[in-house]
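Our platform keeps sequence and structure together, in a single record for each protein. Such a record has a labelled line for the sequence and another for the backbone structure tokens. The tokens are whole numbers drawn from a learned vocabulary of local backbone shapes. The remainder of this section carries one protein's record, kept here as part of the documentation:
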Amino acid sequence: MLRGADCAFADDPALTPLLTADAPVMAVDMAAAFAAVLAHPPLDLRQGRFARRRRLAVAPERIQRLGMFAAALAVLSAAVPLAEMVRLNLAAARLEAAAAAKAAPAGGVAALDARLAQRQGGGAGFAATAGTLFAGLAAAPAIELKEMSFSVDGLLRATISAPGAAEVEALAARLRAAGLAVETPPFVTENGRIRGELRIGG
């Protein structure tokens, strides 16, 4: 195989002298030439996407430092919502204390008891008197409660409708047996029933 600057052809004993004339011909060791080309190829195919990947060597100290940074970041991430939760709890506690201070008047429990007694009225109070009346009405289903009012002096007025005077007297007897004072003014007849007002006091 002969190769020149601008030609290449197979070596032929008859043709080669005619083509080369007096040009110098140098014999080349093909095995050595191939080895040299393979050792230093003129075109590097291992480049770009096909380049050999290099392993990045990271010092152990840097890995340890990165781990410390990650741990600190995790602690800070958890501390922020925790601090916000504590702040909200403290604010809620302050609001509850302020609301309790507004709700409780000066004097505390004693003042609240006095206000409650004042609102309940005189005598046994509305709750106790009305509760006793409702219990008596529950035992007398024929009697209907039409109206009811309570005054600050402890007098409860209940307008009722009953089949007759016997039922009214039986209800009044139950209320008196429970410790209440009962007045029964005259009743009027209305649609076959009697209607009137009970005046009940403690």
Remarks:
- Residues 56 and 84 are 42 Å apart (CA to CA).
